[in-house]
Predict the structure of Gfo/Idh/MocA family oxidoreductase.
Amino acid sequence: MMKKIKLGILGGGEESLIGILHRVAANMFDQYEIVGGVFDSEHSRSVDFGNKLQLDKSRIYRDLDHLVEAEMKLPENERMQVISVLTPNFLHFPMSKQLLENGFHVICEKPLTTTLEEAKTLEKIQQEKGSIFGVTYTYTGYPMVRQMKTMIQNGEIGSIQKVDVQYYQGWINPLIHDKEKRSTTWRLDPEKSGISCCIGDIGTHAFNMAEYVTGLKIQEILADLNYLYEDNPMDIDGTVLLRFSEKTKGVLRASQIATGEENNFTVKIYGDKGGLKWEQENPNYLYLLKEGQALQVLKPGHPYNSEFSLEGTKLPPGHPEGIFDSMGNIYFGIARAIRKEKGFEGAFPKLSEGVRGMNFIEKTVESHKQGNTWVKL
Amino acid sequence: MMKKIKLGILGGGEESLIGILHRVAANMFDQYEIVGGVFDSEHSRSVDFGNKLQLDKSRIYRDLDHLVEAEMKLPENERMQVISVLTPNFLHFPMSKQLLENGFHVICEKPLTTTLEEAKTLEKIQQEKGSIFGVTYTYTGYPMVRQMKTMIQNGEIGSIQKVDVQYYQGWINPLIHDKEKRSTTWRLDPEKSGISCCIGDIGTHAFNMAEYVTGLKIQEILADLNYLYEDNPMDIDGTVLLRFSEKTKGVLRASQIATGEENNFTVKIYGDKGGLKWEQENPNYLYLLKEGQALQVLKPGHPYNSEFSLEGTKLPPGHPEGIFDSMGNIYFGIARAIRKEKGFEGAFPKLSEGVRGMNFIEKTVESHKQGNTWVKL
Amino acid sequence: MMKKIKLGILGGGEESLIGILHRVAANMFDQYEIVGGVFDSEHSRSVDFGNKLQLDKSRIYRDLDHLVEAEMKLPENERMQVISVLTPNFLHFPMSKQLLENGFHVICEKPLTTTLEEAKTLEKIQQEKGSIFGVTYTYTGYPMVRQMKTMIQNGEIGSIQKVDVQYYQGWINPLIHDKEKRSTTWRLDPEKSGISCCIGDIGTHAFNMAEYVTGLKIQEILADLNYLYEDNPMDIDGTVLLRFSEKTKGVLRASQIATGEENNFTVKIYGDKGGLKWEQENPNYLYLLKEGQALQVLKPGHPYNSEFSLEGTKLPPGHPEGIFDSMGNIYFGIARAIRKEKGFEGAFPKLSEGVRGMNFIEKTVESHKQGNTWVKL
Amino acid sequence: MMKKIKLGILGGGEESLIGILHRVAANMFDQYEIVGGVFDSEHSRSVDFGNKLQLDKSRIYRDLDHLVEAEMKLPENERMQVISVLTPNFLHFPMSKQLLENGFHVICEKPLTTTLEEAKTLEKIQQEKGSIFGVTYTYTGYPMVRQMKTMIQNGEIGSIQKVDVQYYQGWINPLIHDKEKRSTTWRLDPEKSGISCCIGDIGTHAFNMAEYVTGLKIQEILADLNYLYEDNPMDIDGTVLLRFSEKTKGVLRASQIATGEENNFTVKIYGDKGGLKWEQENPNYLYLLKEGQALQVLKPGHPYNSEFSLEGTKLPPGHPEGIFDSMGNIYFGIARAIRKEKGFEGAFPKLSEGVRGMNFIEKTVESHKQGNTWVKL
């Protein structure tokens, strides 16, 4: 009989916004058993939280060092197999590195690291160790994103000629115009968040999505960023021209000063045989545009969807899937990989995608700083 | 420290559509620990499924009798506290009854029973025992439904003058026109499903929702049902005129032959100070209509929502909630009640609502059979 | 060479809301020349308005008697051929009658008359005279309503099994709760508006549309109206159960106290092969639902639409049609009929539809007053 | 008494797509009387068309020279006052020039000319003559675009920090991939269409709209265009980075190879106090985003709209306005200007806007050809 995969978690405690997302996702398909972790840098809070989850006290660790040491002493069939890294951005790298080096599989929040250098280091270790490493570009798990990917792969919209991705939020607006606030927000502090705010946090989602659904690689970019204030070291808005090939062009728009926007992430792909459009805030609709035909709206759970899409749909049509489902699908994909089962291609975002994301962030800032010139990825 | 509530499940095994919904919901807020149950009438399948969930084998029971007997022998702090009944409709009553009589709390799928008589019997026992009994009218758990309820309660749209609820599906269309199929579908078999198909299955959701969000009670109804074929004993479509009071009228429309519809459940409430509208297939939008003002679209997670609504929202605005979240909120409400904590009024649908639902079903069929006349509820 | 049709107008002057709608519609396809009329009961205002339209002063008449007398003296090729009646409801009948009796074609706003009796009288005269008589159920002129009609006629959604029409407005809410206002509003005065307000004004649109798009006739109805106050003699809200045949049922909902609603007129038709949905406030989208297929959204101007629909579309896809276009199409249909050209069936609403509308209004009130019983149409 | 303005038309005959748009618009507010013109380069067709409009034969001219000569001989109060130029792009300049030189007011379709040079020439003559000159950037006439302009002007969304305009169509897709077709389409022939296809035809609308609603001027641009094939001399897709000021940035996206798109023109403006969004294909909704508040959807005809917006709304809320209404409003604005009445600022697009549009087109192509560098406007 198949045993659940033993999962540890770093971060994601009481104050965390995303802890619940990962826990629900891990539980969704009955693939994982959360066995312990370090939920908070403050040990007592970590313990309280672990207790709430009813975990064995002995596996609520003081810090990662203690976790690694103790877990390595356990017999292999009791040991944590995979560990989710939900800590602040700057800790993604050292923690993931330590985990990889000790043979754990890793699930890491994005952005993967704070520099491309670090990302490459992780990739090198991972390749040596042969570990599974998932990066939670959450939105790729939605059934209709998977359907879009399959349809493009199957030639449904022909050869891609135009790619348009947008990720608009407004949450930085109330901070950025206040000198005090903008100097104290951790997202705007390069020490904690790397060299980019808007592109690093959300632009990278849009970049990944553009490559994910099209199956194409972006070759070159030209970026124009906005910092709004001279004393603000981090971009909070930007437009990036994308070149996939001589003919296939695109544009990526990201903003955290699109006042009033929540999480307005949209994807539009146009080929010579049709177009496909999707919006994250209304994730259960996939729009198919074909010349001379009525607009088609595809929805999850129908047999006309691909097997890959259907695998990620839990209930019959008309029962809205949400963000939890999307992350649940990604965790499921990782579980299969850990179990060495054959899963769908694209079932979870890989470390290499995280590396490409870091490369994109660095090159975007480079292009902007050079005066908005083309830079090869 | 707070312990998780020990949950047993009846039904919901491998073949079940709704098993995953209840398990995800139970896990969502870290309130429950699934400890065992009877997942399938076929014991070996039940055991396989319990193993998959990594449950203690000794608590995967052959049937409900065994479960009750064994659990009652356990010390109280190890015993199942609450049991979810996800079995076919006609088993809801005997199982719930046995559970109540043995002191368990119960979570039961709707329709509660197959007759009003049975429902009243359950209510009587529950009142004697003082048990918690939740009926999973799932859709009442959505954050924006809760927001609608609070706003109406707070007088935001004034005195209610018009109620309009619709629940349209199309799934029976491909069955009903085929003599063979319509005679073998269990939903169309009164033995298994009670006296009504469409009203019993979905009309009752709409009825409950109309009373839930308005806080009003429907006094009288006049129903017109459609059976389409003389050899079909069960309604598959119907319209019900609703009278809340002399002045406050409404209409409930339900159909399973609205070809092509998925789960198109909508609620519109109009008062003398404004209107509120909500659609289940797009559950994160609540429309507020006020004379002389722009249409307002409220969304989950914003501070302008009520505490009751916000309690059921797990992530920041822009991260779509789905049906899992809705059921998760209901399980959370039940958990609080079991812990004797003070929760929000309306945090989960009560047994009395299930009883009213059964009454509605019977009276609807009665009104129709009498030639579409008014019947008091 | 084809001459424009000479058009006279009664009402529709400076204060009129609908005058501009009729004038724009008449001009749209270059079929009519407005030559004169009686624009206002106050002659000087009528003259001022006629001057503004740059009409020949001699054809701006004091009243209908003068108009008829003077026009009849003109040579036939100069005489007004058709006259649009845009006056208050209670004048529709006497004016239309006088016009028909004198050999004019007539375009009349709805409701056609204030009683069924009057409507039948008009019909009798019209049949004797062989005149063209259009009733402006404006919404039937939209390209996508025409498309819906053609598709149903062609069997696209199979045999109709469910009809659902809604017409919700909120404009009476601010009047009805004020005793003074509700006693002085002309729409609530039976002398001026006939026996019904809500059903007469908008329910009749919904009734006509239900029959128009399905090509079916409603056989029986059962109505429940709402008057809200005892001193209010006119319905302001109502639900009407519709029976097209033993199997084909439907429901019509109309309200003027759906607070905050503007002109929310929707049509849903379900057959055994699919469903079609349309909304007046977003008139350029027609939704086609087919089992096992993606939802289809048809839009005006595409070659996949019927000739009938395309005739009423003036610009390429993506250029929104509005209410003016809808009325323009109806005027065009009437022009063709006047010229004795063969036009599309359903190109304009006929007098017989107006008569059916009046019958519906009377029977609806009758059903309600009898205690919500079935009444044959 | 006010006389109608005498209007002549060049082009817009039987084969024209836009002739009907201009005629309906001219008639809408009863401000113009169409008296003659040159409707087709083939005189007999022109005469036939003029006859259909029932125009005086003597004023259906052989060509512009004849028109000018004959009209100049008429007494001033009978002479055409304003002439609409609806001919192919390359004729806009010579015809407008001749008209201006002879003292006519002009309404000209966009693009104004084929070169910036020509545009400036027109502007010079117009300034000397003091003529009224309207350029039909049609979409600025929609009531909700006007409302957006007023709200921004009134500071409703504060200081603008992000501008995003999109104009996506797909109509060139079926032509561009066919060598034969792409070499014979007039829009892709620089001789007939100037130096740009996509930017010239639709990008210029988006450019104008961005400046129109914000009241700001774009200072610099950086463009990346797509031609897809080496033998195609004209852009068919492009993205243009916009700089309004150091801080206020934006992006303009235009495409004619967004396969399946119809006329998907959208405008999003974000300031430090809120955001506003509008979509041409659904022109009656204006979205207002404010931090911490429900999304607001403004619609035409409500008293909360500005006077400027309300002036362009002909019917009560809930009666959809379409593209005809938008053009009608522009014609009305021009009529007022011709009558020397004080109208609303922005009531019609001026020649200076057409000049800026031509400048934008030339600079966009220049930026692209220079290797995607910043160019000052």
